[in-house]
Each structure stands twice: as structure tokens, then as C-alpha cells.
Design a protein that fits this description.
With 647 residues, the chain is an alpha/beta fold. It has 25 helices and eleven strands. Helix 10 runs antiparallel to helix 14 and helix 10 packs antiparallel against helix 16. Keywords: Flavoprotein, FMN, Metal-binding, mRNA processing, NAD, NADP, Oxidoreductase, Repeat, tRNA processing, Zinc, Zinc-finger.
């Protein structure tokens, strides 16, 4: 049975869901195969278990008791399913390898050993994304904003509203979320729900009872001002404040180098000769005149911290996690040099009004760029703390000396912290790993140095750069580090997927809190579970409502025009690439689910739950079509992990 025919747009199971699929149907996806077996699972648990024990005892034991697999109740196991590769969702080089392997197997079909198989593993690189519309296909922004076009007849965009309206594809839904919530849709004719608010006379309607006459961007802050952007482009922004700090740090560094070379100095004489110049940490006597008020302080203890997540940790997702109980949120990683150049990286810094404790994470390798960037955002953004990324394992970042590479350069890291602390008026935090190389932990050697230079919070991900996710997070080592960090709070990060995990880590360590990353991607309601200390057996319809809320957040952030809808779809698919790993509580034989355990193939308690459990990228696209309408003819989405091409 095709999953899209069994689940309506609103997430309800249709009557057709109970009709078996004809046996002569060509290729079937995982969701189709699972739906066929759903009818067989309507028997009672005891009778079904007995049937499995009698007829498939060896298969059942092989599946449900395999090491590294989650324990699924017997009546939900899909015992005879054999996954196949869906060639539409593999990279071209993999398609060529499959073709070559099939040709080789066909030539040697009569020979032993049996045919070779290609195993998909690892990540897809150079992933393609949806192409943007050409200028000639887009309506001019001046028409949408109801003002005169500055380019006149030279404008390359469309100006014929009637022609655009007649050629416009059908709306993807009857109701525009932006018009319903704000009283006016700023995307006017280009909105994919435009017929809700465009009159017969082709006018963009306004609900005066709701509309307040302010732009949609009012709900978020940290938009880069055009004047500031021009100054950055022309390299005319005033960084004199940072320059003074950097000069002082350089003087101190050169003085330390002289002492290290064995040239003894009379410290008393040195102090007397430099009465107006301090050697050491920057003071406010001659360099920086801080405001009369003290620097802002945050009580981080016992708060739930949503980790800064590249790509998937976008503003709509953070809003979703805030609604489920996250206390602290942080922007996606922003590269300091890109911010200093006024590039589009600034979009990552946007903060929603619901994010009451919000931080900006910066990534950089040099003292000057990180210090200047700290000054730049301090003067132009609203945030509560800044986080230094010392944990990013990406090769491109690492080779530049950024991210995890900073852990191997403690002196430079100290200088970066000193420089940034001198220009910031908010707390400064550091996120790092256990170390760079697997089996060689070095975080404990950095903690005393970071504490000495004034870091306000340290977060440790319990894995090394080389290790990635091949092993469990080392919470014993996190505990050792938390005992060293007595004066500065330390948060642990890694493998938190339930309230039991969080309670266990906090009760058995000296950590002051937990940072949650993959656990929030798999189930954003984990924050509610931790605060209420319960396992939430969330229904498939509730999970669909969660996805629908993410989509609405996406419309408010990226827009409801074609580009905004497709951007929302892309990030929804990225989110589904994690959320499909969630195993419903009612399906599990042993609660809670562990983050390192994979489920065997199983059916859900209804067709929608089954569809949401699919690891096949094709099924994620079906879910996106339930919320965002059909994909375009040339739509492309290559999953991050090659294994998601199995169906």
C-alpha cells in the first residue's frame, strides 16, 4: 500500500489504508511493505507472539536480540523485510558503482561465490540543493512591497501582475499562515497560499483587526544594518577598541617571550617604568572604559541547553525546542572572518523573541579576527553570551586551525579568550571535546587555563574529534573534568535521549547541567520529558502537529513564497533525517530508547507512525508533501547519510 494514499494531508488514516496492495505491483518502498503487514498486526499481542515463536523463532531471535539493536515488541517486528537500494537517492558515483557491480554479477552469474553486494555507508558529499527561480520568473519586489521600482524599464524581474497571476501554479493550501496570524502577508502575489488574501481585483488584502503596520521581521533581531554592511565591505568599520586590546596582548606576549628566552628582568623596575601600562590581563585603566553597570551574568546551573547545531539548529527549530522547554539556545556556528566581511553568514545570528537566553557561537583561529568580531556583534546584536567553538570536527574547519584544532593550541586559545573578554559585556563560554585524537584526552589540561582567563562556562562533548559517533560519550571523563572546574560551571554533552539519561549523568557527576544535541533532533520534546520526568508516548498525530509547527515557523522566518517554501522543505527533510530514528514508547519492549541502538525493521501502531519510522528518504519527501504540497518536477534531495537510500 502506498503510504501517501493511506494518510491524509491532515495526518488522519483513510479507510483505504486497510486495503491490501495487489501482488503484481512493481517496486515497493519500506512504507508500502510495512503497510501491507499492518493488517496482520491487528491480532492480540499474545496470539501474535505465539505465532512468531512457532513459525519464525529463529528469525525473531536473530532480529530482536542482536547486539546494538533496540528491543521491539514482537507484534511490531517486520521479520521478512529485505531492504533494497533506491538509486534515486544515491550520488552519481554510487550509481555508477552499482551499475558496474550489476554488470559484473551478470557476467559471473553461473560462477561461485555468490554475487557481490554494495554496502552503502558514510556521508554524501557535494549534496545538490533546489535551484532558485530565474529573475524572469520572479515578480519584482517593488510590486510585492507596493512601491515604485527604482530600476524602471531596466528591471530584470516581472512587472506584469496579471500575467504572473495567470501563470502562477496552484496554491499548496487554502490558508496562509502569515495572513491569519499577522493580518497581512508580506509576500503578496508570490505567496504559495496567495488566493487566501488576494482579492478578485488583484489586491493584497489586509485584516485591519490584526495587522499592526509593522514588518514581519519584528519577531526576530540581529538583522545586519545596510550601513554597517557597507562599512565592512569597504573595511572602514571602527575597530579602534579591538586594536588597543590587541596591541596590549601583543606587548604582553612579547614580554613573556623575552622571559622564556632566559633574559632575566627586574620585575619591580619593569612595573615602575610602565606605570601607565599594565603587563598582563587587560584592565580598564587606560584601554577600555566599561559602562558603570557590571557585566551581565547568567546563572547557567540546572538549565537545559540546546546545543548549537550546524544546518539543523536553525531559528525555526530552536523556536520549536523552546516551546517544549529548552532553557538556553545558541545560534548555528558562524565563522568570524565571514561576519567581518559582511557576508550572508549574518543570517545565522538572528534571534527570535521567544529565545530569552540566547548565545552566538563564533568559530575562528586568530586572535585579531575573533576579537574584532566580538566587538562587532557586541555593538550591533542582541544576545546574552558568546560561545567559542573548540569542538567542530569538520576537516575544512580543522585544517584552518579553527574548531577542534584550537584545543591543540592552548596559548592561542588563551589569547583569544583574553581578547574577546576585553571587548564583550556578556559572559564568554567555550564548547570543546575530550580531545583531538582518540584515546588522548586533553580537555582536563585546558580547563585550569580557561578558568584562569575568565571563561564563564565550559561545555565538554564526551567524544574526541577522531572518534565522532563510533562510541558512547565518556561521561566518566566529563566527571573528572567537572571536578577540576570548581569555580566555573561545566556542562556535559553526549547521548542524552531521555530524562533517565539526564538524571543519571547529573546525579553521578559534578556537572552543573546538560547540553542536548542529537537527542533534541530525534525528539524535540525531550526537554518536556526531562522537566516532567516521564516518558512521553507521543502519538503520530502529535508528531505531525510538531512538524506542522516547524513549517509555520519556517514560513515566518524564510517566507511563504516559492523560495521560502522550498527552503522550509529542505530543512524539514534535514530534520526528518534525525526524527525517523525515534522509536515510540508503546512499540519498545524495553524503555527508554538508547541513542546508540538501532531498531530492526518494524511497523508502527498506525500508518502515519509507520511512515515516520521509515529511514528511506523517499518517505520523508512524502511527509513533506503532506505539509508543503507536491515537490517540483526537478526536485532533488540527497540525504546526508548514504544508508538512507535503502528502501
Amino acid at each position: 500500500m502506498d503510504a501517501t494514499s493511506s494518510v491524509t494531508k491532515d495526518g488522519e488514516v483513510s479507510e483505504d489504508a486497510k486495503t491490501p496492495v495487489a501482488e503484481n505491483k512493481p517496486e515497493t518502498s519500506l512504507s508500502d511493505e510495512i503497510s501491507k503487514q499492518n493488517k496482520d498486526t491487528e491480532v492480540t499481542e499474545s496470539s501474535h507472539t505465539n505465532a512468531v515463536d512457532t513459525n519464525n523463532s529463529s528469525t525473531k531471535i536473530g532480529v530482536s536480540d542482536r547486539k546494538g539493536e533496540a528491543k521491539i515488541k514482537a507484534q511490531y517486528l517486520l521479520l521478512d523485510y529485505k531492504p533494497k537500494i533506491d538509486t534515486e537517492f544515491v550520488a552519481k558515483e554510487t550509481q555508477n558503482a552499482l551499475k558496474h557491480l550489476n554488470e559484473e554479477n551478470s557476467e559471473n552469474s553461473s560462477l561461485e561465490p555468490p554475487p557481490k553486494k554494495l554496502r552503502l555507508k558514510g556521508r554524501n558529499k557535494k549534496r545538490p540543493f533546489e535551484k532558485k527561480l530565474q529573475a524572469c520568473e520572479k515578480l519584482c519586489g517593488s510590486i510585492i512591497q507596493e512601491k515604485e521600482c527604482a530600476y524602471g524599464p531596466k528591471c530584470i524581474f516581472l512587472h506584469d501582475v496579471k500575467a504572473f497571476w495567470e501563470a502562477k501554479p496552484e496554491d499548496i493550501g487554502p490558508e496562509c499562515h502569515l495572513f491569519t496570524k499577522f493580518g497581512r502577508c508580506p509576500y503578496s502575489f508570490s505567496c504559495r497560499f496567495a488566493r487566501h488574501h488576494i482579492s478578485e481585483s488583484l489586491e493584497n488584502m489586509v485584516n485591519k483587526d490584526i495587522y499592526e503596520g509593522v514588518p514581519l521581521s519584528r519577531n526576530s533581531v540581529n538583522h545586519l544594518d545596510k550601513d554597517v554592511q557597507r562599512l565592512l565591505w569597504k573595511r572602514k568599520y571602527d575597530f579602534s577598541k579591538s586594536q588597543k586590546v590587541l596591541e596590549d596582548l601583543n606587548k604582553k606576549s612579547s614580554t613573556n617571550n623575552v622571559l622564556e628566552d632566559g633574559q632575566k628582568a627586574d620585575m619591580k623596575k619593569l612595573d615602575a617604568d610602565s606605570s601607565s601600562q599594565n603587563i598582563g590581563f587587560v584592565s580598564d585603566e587606560d584601554l577600555i572604559k566599561l559602562r558603570p553597570a557590571e557585566k551581565k551574568k547568567i546563572d547557567f546551573s540546572n538549565k537545559l541547553f540546546l546545543a548549537p547545531l550546524t544546518t539543523v539548529g536553525n531559528l525555526p527549530f530552536r523556536r520549536l525546542c523552546k516551546s517544549y522547554g529548552a532553557d538556553i539556545t545558541c545560534s548555528e556556528m558562524a565563522v568570524a572572518t565571514s561576519l567581518l566581511q559582511g557576508k550572508t553568514e549574518w543570517a545565522l545570528l538572528k534571534r527570535h523573541e521567544s529565545e530569552d537566553i540566547f548565545g552566538i557561537q563564533l568559530c575562528g583561529a586568530h586572535v585579531d579576527s575573533m576579537t574584532r568580531c566580538a566587538q562587532l556583534i557586541q555593538e550591533n546584536c542582541k544576545f546574552d553570551f558568546v560561545d567559542i567553538n573548540c569542538g567542530c570536527p569538520i576537516e575544512l574547519i580543522y585544517q584552518k586551525g579553527e574548531g577542534c584544532a584550537l584545543m591543540g593550541r592552548p596559548s592561542r586559545l588563551e589569547q583569544i579568550v583574553k581578547g574577546m573578554k576585553s571587548v564583550l559585556e556578556v559572559p564568554l563560554t567555550v564548547k570543546m571535546r575530550t580531545g583531538i585524537q582518540d584515546g588522548k584526552n586533553i580537555a582536563h589540561t585546558l580547563i585550569p587555563k580557561l578558568t584562569k582567563v575568565g571563561v564563564d562556562l565550559i561545555t565538554i562533548h564526551g567524544r574526541s574529534r577522531e572518534q565522532r559517533y563510533t562510541k558512547l560519550a565518556d561521561w566518566d571523563y566529563i566527571n573528572q573534568c567537572s571536578q577540576i572546574s570548581e569555580t566555573v560551571p561545566l556542562f556535559g554533552n553526549g547521548d542524552v535521549l531521555s530524562f533517565e539519561d539526564a538524571n543519571s549523568f547529573l546525579s553521578n557527576t559534578y556537572a552543573k547541567g546538560v547540553m542536548i544535541a542529537r537527542g533534541a533532533l530525534i525528539k524535540p520534546w525531550i526537554f518536556t520529558e526531562i522537566k516532567e520526568e516521564r516518558h512521553w508516548d507521543i502519538s503520530s498525530s502529535e508528531r505531525l502537529d510538531l512538524l506542522r509547527q516547524f513549517v509555520r515557523n519556517g514560513f515566518e522566518h524564510w517566507g511563504s513564497d516559492h523560495q521560502g517554501v522550498e527552503t522550509t522543505r529542505r530543512f524539514l527533510l534535514e530534520m526528518l533525517s534525525f526524527s525517523h530514528r525515534y522509536i515510540p514508547v508503546g512499540v519498545l519492549e524495553r524503555v527508554p530508547q538508547k541513542i546508540n541502538e538501532r531498531p530492526p525493521y518494524y511497523v508502527g501502531r498506525d500508518d502515519l507512525e509507520t511512515l515516520m519510522s521509515s529511514s528511506n528518504c523517499r518517505d520523508w519527501i512524502k511527509i513533506s508533501e503532506m505539509l508543503l504540497g507536491p515537490v517540483t518536477e526537478n526536485f532533488q534531495f540527497l540525504p546526508k547519510h548514504k544508508a538512507n537510500a535503502y528502501k
